[in-house]
Write a structure and sequence with these properties.
The complex is a heterodimer of chains A (about 600) and B (about 290).
Chain A (H helix, E strand, L loop, with lengths): L5 H13 L18 E6 L8 H5 L6 H8 L4 E3 L2 E3 L7 E3 L7 H8 L9 H8 L3 H18 L11 H17 L7 E3 L1 E4 L10 E5 L17 H13 L4 E5 L22 H10 L2 E6 L2 E2 L35 H15 L7 E4 L28 H4 L3 E2 L3 E2 L8 E6 L4 H9 L3 E4 L5 E7 L9 H11 E3 L3 E2 L6 E7 L7 E12 L2 E11 L32 E7 L9 E9 L2 E2 L1 H9 L10 E2 L2 E4 L2 E3 L3
Parallel strand pairs in A: 1-4, 4-5, 9-11, 18-27
Antiparallel strand pairs in A: 1-14, 2-3, 6-7, 7-8, 9-10, 12-13, 14-15, 15-26, 16-17, 16-19, 19-22, 20-21, 20-23, 23-26, 23-27, 24-25
Helix pairs in contact in A: 4-7, 8-9
Chain B lengths: L12 H15 L6 H5 L9 H15 L5 H23 L7 H22 L4 H10 L1 H4 L4 E9 L5 H13 L15 E6 H8 L3 H5 L7 E6 L4 E10 L10 H25 L13 H6 L4
Antiparallel strand pairs in B: 1-2, 1-4, 3-4
Helix pairs in contact in B: 1-4, 5-11, 6-11
The chains are: A alpha+beta (about 600), B alpha+beta (about 290).
C-alpha cells in the first residue's frame, strides 16, 4: 500500500464501523434442513489486527473481512476486489500474539499510537522495510523468549480491547440462516521453526477474556490445558492445526514437544481438543507428496515444494496428513487411543483480510500484502522465509454438512467431523459407510435418507464385522468443469507397517475397469484462454464401493477424494491477463479436488 | 505468520533515523492544544479542560475511570512529553524532519478530508443527486424467480419433451419429480447469482422463457432443466426511497475516496510546481508544465 492510501484506509475503517448492524433473524428462525446442507466457508484468515499483516500493509478490520465474505466489494491491497460468490460462514482468526499492540496500531489517538515504532509499522512504505520491521519486532522476539512486546505495548487491557473489537465485529455480522460468523483466533507457535500453529474456534459467545498466545505457552499441551480450564468452565472450544507440511515432522511425532513418548493421556487430550486438521491453504496442500507416495498418481498437486529451501523445513513423510492418519491407527494399536483422528477443513491463511479469496481466475491482489500484491511481483518473488510465490496457491475452502446455517449447527458438525475440504471450487461430497446400500437411488433425497439409515456419515466410526460398503456422492461446482472420478483412500497398520492404498470408486463415463484402474480422461485446458473442457466428465457421480481387502480385526481409515477435470491455475491467468511470465517449471494447469473427512473402522 | 527465520538485518535508514528523531516525533500529538504552546513558553498550564481531555483518552483505552495513581502517571507523562516537545521546538528540531513532515502532511490530509466530509454531509438532497449521477451503479440487475427440475446431461430430447408435456398437463406432480440435490423453488435472485448456482449459461437462457408455464429444456453446467418461470423482473432503476440506506452506505464508502483526490487537486492548484532537477520523468513534466 502506498503511503497516500493510508488515510483512505483509516477512513474506510472508520466508516465501516458506523454501519448499522443487520440482524435479520434469530437462530430459531433459521431454515432447517434435516438431511443437512453443505455450507461453504473460511476457517483461517487474518486482518490488519494480526500484527504481521498490519506491517505488510493490511489495514482491514474483521468488520471489513466479514463484509468481503458476504460478497461486498472492498479496497484490498491497493485495489477494489470482491469474490464471485458470498460465503455461508467465516471465522476471522487473527494471531493472539501482539493483539494488544494491534490496539495501539489501529486506533488513532490511543496510547502508543504515536510511538515511533508503531509509526514505523504504520508507515512501512515497501516490502523491504516491512520485512525488516517484521523480523525485528515479530520473529526475533518470539524466537528469543522473554518479553516479546515492543515498547508501545500498553498491557493486558489493550489485549482485552482488541479481543472485544473482534468480538463486536463477529457479533455484528452474524445473520442466522444466511451468514454465520464464528468467534476464533490463531495460536501461533513455531518452536525451532516447526509449525505448530492452531486455529481456535468457539461455539458461541461464552468466551475467555483474552485468548491464549504462544507467549503464554508455546507447547500445544499448554494450549490444551488452557482450553480444558475453559471447557470446565462451560465454554465450547476446539483447535485446528495447520501447515503440517511445515512442521518438520513434529505434528505427527513419536513424542510430545517436551520429549515424552506419546501416551494414553496425551492421545486422549489431543483427540478431544483437535477434531479437525487443515488439509490445504495458501502455503500448500498437506495431504501427500509424490516422493513419499509414488503410487498416488494425483499426489503432485500444490505441494509448495520450495518450502524446503527455507528455515530447514525439508519435507519428511511425517509432515503429511495421510501419514498422520496412519500413525494414528498405529498409536491406536500401541496404546489403545488414536491421537490423530482428524476430519478435514480447508482454509486460506490469507493475510489480506479477504476470506476464501480462492478463485484461480480472480486472484488479482494476492494474499500476503506487499509480498504478492501484483502479477509482476508474484512472477518473480518469494514469500520471505517461506517459499516462492509461484509455488503458493489462493487457498482452500471448507464444506460443512449442517442442519442449518447457524453457529451451533456449523460448529457441532465440525466437531462431529461431517466436513470436507476443497482446493477452492464449490464441489460437494458425501460418504456413508454401512451395509445394504442400493446401487442407485430414485433421488438424492432417498440416497441421503438411506445413507443415514444404513450407515454412518463422514467423520464417524464404522464398527461392523463385514467389509464396509461406502456410499459416495459428489456434485461438481456449477461454474466449474465436470468431475473425473471419486477415489477412496484406505490406510491401515499391518505387521508393524503403516500402509495405504488409493482405490478408484467411481469414474465418469465407462472408464472404470474391472481391475480398478481408470482410463485417463483427455480434457486439457485451452492454454490461450484458460477455458476448461465442457464436454467430458460428469456433473454428478455416485456409487457404492465395497472394501475388497477387508480384515475385520484391522483398524483402518477411509477417506474420499473427488477429482474434477483440469482447470487453469492462477499463474496462467496472470500470464494471460498481465503479460508476466512464470518460469517454465511452474504449473499452468491443475486438477482441483475435494477431500471428505475419513470414516474409521474401529474394531470392537 | 509469514516467515520464520529471516536472516536479513534491518538496513532501512528510516528506522535508524527514527531512533534518533523519535523524541521529536513522539512529542507530536493529536491532542496537544495549540494555544498552550503559543502563550507563555515558561508556563505549562494543565487546566481542567486539559486534564479532563487526558482522562477521557485514558478511559477510552482502558475502559474504566483512572484512579489517583493513574492520574498522577497521566500528568507525569504529559509533563515529560511537553517539556521535551517545547525544547525541541526551540531548537527547531521539527524543521525539515522527514518524519515530522510526513506526520503533519498526514494530519493535514485527515483534516482536509474531515472538512470535505463535513461540507458534504449525506443529506437527502445530496444522496438523491449521488443516486442519479450513478444510476448505472444503482440499477437493479435482471432477476428471476422460478421452479426447476434437473435431468442428467444424457437424458434424451424425447424424454424431456414427454416430461414437459406431463408437467403442463398435471403441474401438481412437479415437486415430487425433483430427484436432484438442487432446490426445486428459487426465490427472486439476480441473473449473476443464478448463473453462479447453475453455470453453463443457464441464466441467459431464462430470458426467452414464458412466465407462468413449464418450459425448456434449458442447459446448465449440471445438466438439462425444465423450468417454470414465476417472475421475470427486468433490469430497472429502483425508486430512491426504496434504496436510500444502501445509497447512503455507498456514498460514505466511495465519496470519501473521491473527496480525497479532489482535496489534493484543489490544494495543489494553489502552488506552482517548479523543477530544477534534470532527471524528472516526462509524465510528471507534462502534468506540471514549466513556465
Amino acid at each position: 500500500m502506498r503511503l497516500s492510501n493510508i488515510a483512505r484506509y483509516s477512513a474506510f475503517v472508520a466508516l465501516a464501523s458506523v454501519i448499522t448492524p443487520v440482524w435479520s433473524a434469530s437462530e430459531a428462525d433459521a431454515p432447517q434442513n434435516p438431511l443437512k446442507e453443505a455450507y461453504f466457508g473460511e476457517t483461517h484468515v487474518h486482518t490488519g489486527v494480526s500484527m504481521d499483516a498490519f506491517i505488510a500493509g493490511n489495514r482491514l478490520t474483521p468488520d471489513d473481512a466479514y463484509r468481503f465474505a458476504k460478497g461486498e466489494e472492498i479496497m484490498v491491497n491497493g485495489s477494489l476486489h470482491r469474490i464471485k460468490r458470498p460465503l455461508d460462514f467465516a471465522a476471522v482468526t487473527d494471531h493472539s500474539e501482539f493483539l494488544g499492540e494491534s490496539y495501539s496500531l489501529m486506533n488513532e489517538g490511543v496510547a502508543g499510537y504515536d510511538d515511533d515504532v508503531a509509526v514505523a509499522f504504520r508507515e512501512a512504505p515497501d516490502l523491504e522495510t516491512a520485512l525488516g520491521l517484521y523480523n525485528k519486532y515479530v520473529l526475533a522476539p518470539l524466537a528469543g523468549g522473554g518479553d516479546p512486546h515492543p515498547e508501545f505495548f500498553q498491557g493486558i487491557e489493550a489485549i482485552k480491547s482488541t479481543w472485544k473489537q473482534n468480538y463486536e465485529a463477529t457479533q455484528k455480522h452474524y445473520e442466522p440462516g444466511k451468514f454465520t460468523t464464528i468467534h476464533a483466533y490463531e495460536w501461533t507457535s513455531a518452536p525451532g521453526g516447526s509449525n505448530q500453529h492452531r486455529n481456535i474456534l468457539f461455539r458461541d459467545t461464552n468466551l475467555p477474556d483474552i485468548p491464549f498466545s504462544s507467549s503464554d505457552g508455546s507447547d500445544p499441551e499448554q494450549l490444551w490445558a488452557w482450553m480444558q480450564t475453559h471447557r470446565d468452565d462451560g465454554k465450547k472450544v476446539f483447535a485446528i492445526p495447520h501447515n503440517s507440511n511445515e512442521s518438520k515432522g513434529l505434528l505427527f511425532a513419536e513424542a510430545s514437544l517436551t520429549g515424552v513418548p506419546i501416551g494414553k493421556e496425551y492421545a486422549e487430550t489431543r483427540a478431544s481438543m483437535e477434531p479437525l486438521i487443515e488439509m490445504m491453504q495458501v502455503k500448500g496442500n498437506s495431504e501427500v507428496v509424490p516422493n513419499f507416495w509414488p503410487n498416488d498418481e494425483f499426489a503432485d498437486f500444490e505441494n509448495a515444494v520450495s518450502i524446503q529451501r527455507f528455515s530447514g523445513r525439508g519435507y519428511v513423510k511425517e509432515n503429511f496428513v495421510r501419514y498422520g492418519l496412519g500413525r494414528g491407527i498405529k498409536y491406536n494399536a500401541e496404546i489403545g487411543v488414536n491421537p490423530f483422528k482428524y476430519g478435514f477443513v480447508g482454509g486460506t491463511d490469507n493475510h489480506n483480510g479477504t476470506p476464501s479469496n480462492v478463485e484461480e481466475d480472480n486472484y488479482k491482489v494476492g494474499s500476503h500484502g506487499y509480498a504478492d500484491q501484483t502479477a509482476a511481483v508474484r512472477a518473480t518473488s518469494m514469500l520471505e522465509g517461506e517459499m516462492l510465490i509461484a509455488d503458493a496457491n489462493p487457498g482452500a475452502l471448507t464444506g460443512v454438512w449442517a442442519t442449518s446455517n447457524t453457529r451451533g449447527a456449523i460448529w457441532d458438525a465440525m466437531l462431529a467431523k461431517e466436513t470436507f475440504a476443497t482446493s477452492g471450487p464449490r464441489m460437494k461430497v458425501r460418504a456413508f459407510a454401512g451395509q445394504g446400500f442400493a446401487g442407485s437411488y430414485d433421488s438424492y433425497e432417498t440416497l441421503v435418507i438411506d445413507g443415514y439409515a444404513n450407515g454412518v456419515p463422514m467423520g464417524s466410526d464404522y464398527t461392523g464385522e463385514e467389509a464396509p460398503q461406502i456410499l459416495v456422492w459428489a456434485l461438481k461446482d456449477p461454474i466449474g468443469p465436470n468431475l473425473d472420478r471419486i477415489q477412496i483412500i484406505k490406510g491401515w497398520y499391518e505387521n508393524g507397517e503403516m500402509k495405504d492404498k488409493v482405490y478408484n470408486a467411481v469414474a465418469s463415463g465407462d472408464r472404470l475397469k474391472a481391475d480398478g484402474s481408470v482410463e485417463p480422461i483427455d480434457a486439457p485446458i485451452n492454454l490461450s484462454t484458460g477455458e476448461f473442457n465442457t464436454e467430458k466428465g460428469d456433473p454428478e457421480l455416485m456409487g457404492v464401493w465395497t472394501d475388497p481387502d477387508f480384515d475385520p480385526a484391522q483398524q483402518a481409515y477411509y477417506y474420499v477424494r473427488v477429482l474434477q477435470l483440469p482447470t487453469a491455475r492462477w499463474t496462467l491467468y496472470d500470464e494471460l491477463r498481465e503479460g508476466v511470465k512464470y518460469p517454465d517449471e511452474v504449473k499452468r494447469e491443475i486438477v482441483e479436488r475435494a477431500w471428505g473427512s475419513p470414516i474409521w473402522h474401529e474394531v470392537n | 505468520m509469514t516467515g520464520n527465520a529471516w536472516k536479513a538485518i534491518v538496513r532501512e535508514p528510516l528506522l535508524h533515523f527514527l531512533l534518533v528523531g523519535g523524541l521529536v516525533f513522539g512529542a507530536y500529538s493529536w491532542v496537544t492544544p495549540e494555544a498552550q504552546v503559543e502563550t507563555d513558553s515558561e508556563v505549562i498550564l494543565i487546566d481542567q479542560a486539559e486534564l479532563d481531555h487526558l482522562k477521557t483518552l485514558w478511559k477510552a483505552q482502558w475502559r474504566r475511570d483512572p484512579n489517583t495513581e493513574d492520574v498522577a502517571a497521566i500528568i507525569d507523562r504529559y509533563l515529560r512529553q511537553e517539556v521535551f516537545y517545547r525544547e525541541a521546538l526551540r531548537m527547531n528540531l521539527d524543521h525539515n524532519d522527514q518524519i515530522v513532515k510526513k506526520r503533519l502532511a498526514q494530519k493535514m490530509e485527515a483534516v482536509a478530508n474531515d472538512l470535505s466530509t463535513l461540507m458534504q454531509p449525506p443529506t437527502d438532497e445530496r444522496l438523491r443527486a449521488y443516486f442519479h449521477e450513478r444510476e448505472a451503479f444503482f440499477t437493479l440487475p435482471q432477476a428471476y424467480a422460478f421452479k426447476q427440475l434437473l435431468f442428467a446431461p444424457d437424458t434424451s430430447e424425447e424424454q424431456l419433451k414427454q416430461t414437459l408435456a406431463s408437467l403442463r398437463a398435471n403441474a401438481e406432480v412437479a415437486a415430487s419429480l425433483n430427484s436432484s440435490s438442487l432446490p426445486f423453488e428459487w426465490e427472486l435472485d439476480s441473473e449473476t447469482a443464478i448463473e453462479n448456482a447453475f453455470g453453463g449459461g443457464f441464466s441467459k437462457a431464462l430470458a426467452s422463457l414464458p412466465v407462468g408455464e413449464w418450459a425448456g429444456p434449458v442447459r446448465s453446467g449440471l445438466g438439462w432443466h425444465l423450468v417454470y418461470l414465476e417472475q421475470n423482473q427486468p433490469e430497472h432503476l429502483p425508486s430512491f426511497e426504496s434504496v436510500r440506506d444502501f445509497v447512503a452506505r455507498q456514498y460514505e464508502y466511495y465519496a470519501v475516496l473521491e473527496a480525497q483526490e479532489q482535496v489534493f487537486d484543489e490544494l495543489i492548484g494553489k502552488y506552482e510546481v517548479r523543477f530544477s532537477a534534470e532527471d524528472v520523468p516526462d509524465a510528471i513534466l507534462n502534468e506540471f508544465p514549466q513556465s
